[in-house]
Amino acid sequence: MSYTGSAPVDEWIRQAELWGRQAEAWIRQQPPEQIYVAAAVVAITILVLVVASCLKSSKPNTIVLSGLSGCGKTTLFYQLRDGSSHQGTVTSMEENNDTFVLHSEQERKGKVKPVHIIDVPGHARLKPKLDEVLPKAAGVVFIVDAQDFLSSMQAAAEYLYDILTKATVVKKRVPVLIFCNKTDKVTAHSKEFIKKQLEKEINKLRESRNAISSADISDEVQLGVPGEAFNFSQCQNKVTVAEGAGSTGNVSAVEQFIRDYVKA
């Protein structure tokens, strides 16, 4: 019994050889200049596609959680990842770093983009870690303790000022969300109050820092408009303020910020 299963394959091979001969004959008939132009067009097209692909894949999808120790960064991290505040009630001295689909989106149908979230400890001696991760950020969430705000207001403003004046943040227009946490507490301050007080404190910092030699603040970008009181709308990158409570799972403002700005 003869086996004829390879016949279609042989036919395809013969057809391909025929097309190859026809293409070769056509090329021989064309002027050399036209062939060079066609080759150049093909090469440039391939190069553009490769570069576009590289740029697309290099877009950041990292969200940096920052703020003073005890403001609730770690609680927020676990709420975003697991929908629970477990392990998030103790001030962390170690970075939490993970890539995951937001817990609130795990049941969604269709393609859901994962996000890379880094929770940077707020201890002063670990601050250099923040400088390390900011260049990779698609967005920064700055968490403020709304319940204990007045006692930490100056330190929080200084920390936020350092972020807002970083050249990498300003030049890349990295959006910043100021998340007023723990607003479920009766004694918590409103986001409007916190916003105004932070603007006042940053205005003081701006005036004092502007008096320093530019050689000492070479990595800083001056904030605001000269001669005008500072407010967040003057920043070159977008700064918004929202409120919620990580311990109760009220983190929808942070989740929306991530959806708006993460480029996966």
UniProtKB/TrEMBL annotation:
It is a single-pass membrane protein. Signal peptide: none annotated. It holds the Pfam family SRPRB. One of its GO terms (cellular component) is endoplasmic reticulum membrane. The chain crosses the membrane at residues 35-55. GO terms for biological process: Golgi to plasma membrane protein transport; intracellular protein transport; protein localization to Golgi apparatus. SUPFAM superfamilies: P-loop containing nucleoside triphosphate hydrolases (SSF52540). Keywords: Endoplasmic reticulum, ER-Golgi transport, GTP-binding, Lipoprotein, Membrane, Myristate, Nucleotide-binding, Receptor, Transmembrane, Transmembrane helix, Transport. NCBIfam families: small_GTP. Belongs to the SRP receptor beta subunit family. Belongs to the small GTPase superfamily. Arf family. This is Signal recognition particle receptor subunit beta. It comes from Panicum hallii. The lineage of its organism: Eukaryota, Viridiplantae, Streptophyta, Embryophyta, Tracheophyta.
